[in-house]
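Why should sequence recovery work at all? Because a backbone constrains its sequence more than one might expect. Tight turns favour small or flexible residues, buried strands favour hydrophobic ones, and helices have their own preferences. The token representation captures these environments compactly. In the example below, the structure is given first.
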């Protein structure tokens, strides 16, 4: 009997937003990461532990980029997160007093405060501030397949003609995966699912067996794809391609998506923006910058948030989603005959807790619904490679999961000024490896720093943040800093003058990839 698998892949990536200066108030820059730790990563780990303890079988895939893993493993960032929690817990104590005469609001304050207190307990005691160690546990027992991705989540088609830049992103991403999770596995997740002609040769040259692309890559290919997205296909050199169900994100977060239900918590309306200055005096401090406090009292419908109703709705939505995906897969299996049917669903990690408060609860109910029946199982991409060399051959259509299918938001009028600088820096970094093929000591450290700065400048996060209006000034400044630091390296090596003090400062500030070898930018012979 043919097998029917639904494969869920959670995609978690984070811009490298980091400050090594302990005297600097960096709460604004850390907001994305810390909100994700409390909203997504701690609840996900708690879910995995709960399922393991109750012996509920589950399998899924997960992408965790190197910048995110580096930040999670950074002791300074860990301390900043604890301080971030303490600041909000202190505010919660004040909020208990302020709302003591409003029972409905008081209950919401208690709900939010309990969550923050549990986050601190989980982070410091349950997981010993080492979330990656626990994530790796679920990789080791086979429940989660961690799929490597590019070093800094760069949109690789923008560098399709600079082969050295592509190799550096892939090679560094694979090394980071091995560093954090012990192995690189079978696959590779292209950032934003960006595909261009020739990528199959690049990926196969690193021993990669599969990747996941948007449905357009299969459905618009020159060779008609006989099985649609319900069975993997392969390129001419047998790189396996899984096509994602492009309707999933719209079903979850679109205009009529699940997360828009009126009973769910409104994640945009926060006490940090609603309350007057005097109620936030101790929280705002000297800088008076309004930040999210994690005290969110309102539902999408505008009424006070009721956790019980939201939890019941999440269970109903999970059942509805699973039933729809199962029906889709069963119908595909009937059409495929004796072939296995596979349906790949990628889910942005932000939807699981950060932008959709009930997202992790929805995922839990989804996993439990799958475990309660036998017709359809949760699977992983690596388990569907048995027929790798007999799959249909196609030439994937160049496309992306970003924008309207072609990542136009990553290169538009708001951010296109960045491209000429990062491409020139990429070309110059490759030239430096030719000029200095076997350096050691201070010069090698300078070259390694230059390689790190170029990889960071290539990050698609900066362009996306500018387009989306999410800390656009910070993103532009971070990009400029990467380019200027690389230019300083380039000029110093050209003039044979190196400032050791400057080098040490920059190595501390951009401490990602401490094992970096600048030769990843070498031209392949």
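From this structural description, the recovered sequence reads:
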């Amino acid at each position: 009997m043919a097998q029917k698998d639904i494969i869920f892949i959670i995609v978690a990536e984070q811009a490298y937003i980091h400050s090594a200066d302990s005297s600097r108030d960096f709460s604004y820059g850390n907001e994305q990461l810390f909100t994700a730790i409390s909203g997504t990563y701690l609840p996900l780990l708690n879910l995995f532990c709960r399922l393991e303890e109750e012996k509920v079988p589950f399998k899924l895939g997960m992408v965790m980029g190197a910048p995110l893993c580096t930040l999670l493993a950074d002791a300074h960032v860990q301390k900043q997160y604890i301080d971030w929690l303490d600041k909000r817990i202190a505010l919660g104590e004040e909020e208990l007093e302020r709302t003591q005469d409003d029972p409905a609001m008081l209950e919401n304050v208690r709900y939010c405060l309990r969550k923050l207190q549990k986050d601190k307990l989980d982070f410091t005691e349950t997981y010993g501030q080492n979330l990656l160690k626990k994530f790796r546990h679920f990789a080791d027992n086979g429940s989660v397949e961690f799929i490597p991705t590019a070093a800094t989540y760069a949109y690789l088609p923008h560098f399709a003609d600079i082969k050295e830049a592509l190799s550096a992103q892939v090679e560094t991403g694979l090394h980071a995966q091995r560093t954090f999770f012990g192995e690189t596995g079978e696959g590779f997740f292209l950032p934003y699912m960006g595909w261009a002609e020739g990528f199959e040769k690049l990926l196969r040259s690193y021993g990669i067996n599969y990747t996941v692309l948007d449905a357009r890559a299969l459905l618009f290919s020159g060779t008609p794809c006989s099985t649609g997205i319900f069975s993997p296909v392969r390129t001419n050199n047998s790189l396996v391609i899984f096509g994602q169900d492009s309707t999933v994100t719209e079903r979850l977060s679109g205009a009529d998506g699940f997360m828009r239900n009126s009973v769910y918590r409104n994640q945009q309306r926060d006490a940090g923006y609603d309350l007057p200055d005097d109620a936030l005096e101790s929280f705002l401090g000297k800088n008076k910058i309004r930040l999210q406090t994690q005290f969110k009292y309102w539902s999408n419908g505008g009424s006070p948030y009721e956790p019980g109703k939201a939890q019941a709705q999440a269970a109903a939505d999970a059942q509805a989603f699973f039933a729809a995906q199962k029906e889709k897969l069963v119908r595909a299996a009937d059409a495929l005959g004796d072939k296995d049917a596979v349906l790949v669903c990628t889910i942005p990690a932000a939807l699981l807790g950060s932008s959709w408060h009930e997202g992790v609860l929805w995922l839990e109910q989804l996993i439990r619904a799958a475990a309660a029946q036998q017709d359809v199982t949760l699977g992983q991409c690596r388990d569907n490679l048995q027929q790798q060399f007999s799959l249909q051959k196609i030439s994937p259509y160049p496309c992306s999961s970003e924008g309207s299918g072609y990542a136009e938001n990553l290169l538009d009028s708001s951010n296109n000024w960045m491209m000429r600088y990062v491409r020139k820096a990429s070309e110059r970094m490759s030239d430096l490896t030719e000029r200095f093929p076997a350096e050691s000591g201070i010069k090698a450290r300078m070259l390694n720093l230059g390689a790190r700065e170029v990889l960071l400048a290539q990050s698609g996060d900066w362009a996306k943040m500018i387009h989306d209006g999410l800390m656009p000034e910070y993103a532009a400044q971070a990009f400029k800093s990467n380019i200027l630091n690389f230019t300083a390296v380039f000029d110093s090596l050209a003039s044979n003058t190196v400032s050791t003090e400057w080098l040490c400062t920059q190595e501390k500030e951009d401490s990602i990839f401490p094992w970096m070898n600048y030769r990843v930018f070498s031209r392949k012979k």
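A few observations help interpret the result. The beta strands are 4-12, 60-64, 144-146, 210-213, 233-234, 240-243, 341-348, 377-378.
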